[in-house]
Amino acid sequence: MKSTYLLIIGISISVMLLFFMVIYRSSHGKNFIGDTQISIKIARDIQLSKEFSDSLLYLVDTYEHSQGNYTQSTVSVLVSAKDSVTLSCPISGMNQFRSNFSNNFYTYAARKEDLNTMHENASLYTAAFKKKCSIKDNSAQIIVACKKNNSMLFESELSVAAIKSKVLQILENSRYVSIYFVNSEKGTMKDSDGDGVADNNDACPTKKGSAKNNGCPMDDDQEEPKIQLGKCKKADIIPNLSFKPGKPNEFTWDYDSNYTYDFSLKCISNICDDAKPAINEVNIQEGIYRVYASHDESMDKVYLATLTVNCNGKKFTYTIKKRLVCG
Questions:
Q1: 239: closest CA among 310, 304, 302?
Q2: Which of 120, 111, 78, 69 lies closest to 92 in space, CA to CA?
Q3: What is the distance between the alpha carbons of residues 76 and 37, in angstroms, rounded to a whole number?
Q4: Are strands 69-78 and 31-42 parallel, antiparallel or unpaired?
Q5: Which of 65, 106, 235, 248 shows its CA 20 to 30 Å from the CA of 309?
Q6: Helix (H, G, I), strand (E, B), or coil: what is residue 109?
Q7: 228 exposed, middle or buried (CB, 10 Å; 0-12, 13-18, 19+)?
Q8: What's 126's DSSP letter?
Q9: 170 and 265 part of one domain
Q10: What is the pLDDT of residues 237-271, one digit of tens each?
Q11: What is the distance between the alpha carbons of residues 266 and 280, in angstroms, rounded to a whole number?
Q12: What are phi and psi of 228, to 5 degrees?
């Protein structure tokens, strides 16, 4: 009788431990603590490229709120003054099951897993960006000017990486961010000094400057020799693509205002199931790309970083292979 009682207790404890293991997810020292809100308005006459629209998904990401704690944004695509489409990270069935017991079980690692699912199926989520907004909002915290390119699509003045950087600055003091994409050719953007950088993004709105220097004039010792666009020879373009592991990992290159840059990062190991999906950032102008990696995304995985330099209709590609550091 006593042995039967002990057996029942042993089985009960084993079942409880197994159940706990099923719902528990290691956060690698990081916790998910809630959502912030990002509102996006796109002027009705603007058609952004699919690549850029897909890249906007990276605004729905996990941001460091305080040491060891992370918050993740939802995005509302505003269609009219009364209507909006909310885009947020999906929660998988197992993660939903875990979170029903306790929010502590829905950790940073679990959130990143769900984010990867969203990025891998970008077209299911970026459809919301096709809905256009006809209302004006010049009071938005981030106003992004867009111009038509040769393909009759619109190119943003800011890359997604630059927009995200501005978002992170605002999130230091607020849980809400508003972004408005407008057609600069219709005079909806004010550029007082005529340097091609809209006043809202221009650190020196009354002095003609350079986009590389946030709209401010370049100092004499900052000026770099410019390569004539007509040449566009690979021998003239030496971006020096490099990598610095850390928290975050940094890919950098020598920026030249004569060119535009596209950057992509893709896992090329045999085991990429837990790795970050393909990243495609279009028209990056800062000469730097930062990326955080979880334990699963960094463990024994090799990534191919590809920098494409666009020069007068020609494209030149540079690649390096690196392992990311967990952070």
A1: 310
A2: 111
A3: 7
A4: parallel
A5: 248
A6: helix
A7: exposed
A8: G
A9: no
A10: 888 899 988 877 888 888 887 788 888 888 888 77
A11: 9
A12: -65, 130
Last residue of a domain, one of 151, 167, 186: 186
* Segments of 122-254 assigned E as strands: 142-148, 154-156, 176-183, 242-244, 249-252
The first and second tokens of residue 179, run together, are: 């972004």
One domain for residues 177 and 242: no
What the block records as the tokens of 256 is 């030249």
Cβ–Cβ under 8 Å, residues 46 and 182: yes
**Contact predicate 130/47, CB 8 Å:** no
**319 with 307: CB under 8 angstroms?**
yes
pLDDT digits (tens, 9 = 90+) for 108-151: 777 778 888 887 788 888 888 877 777 776 667 888 888 888 77
Range of the domain at 70: 31-186
In the block, tokens 């069935």 appear at: 93
Tokens linked to 224: 């770099």
Q: Are residues 149 and 256 in the same domain?
A: no
Tokens of 176: 């809400």
Residue 31 carries which side chain, given as an amino acid letter? N
- Please count the structural domains in the chain: 2
Asked if residue 306 lies in contact with residue 319, where contact means CB atoms within 8 angstroms, the answer is yes
Say whether both 155 and 239 belong to one domain.
no
Q: Look at the block and give the residue holding tokens 């030149």.
A: 316
Domain match, 66 and 179 both: yes
Calpha distance 317→297 (Å, rounded): 25
Question: What is the dihedral angle through the alpha carbons of 105, 25, 267, 271, rounded to the nearest 10 degrees?
Answer: -150
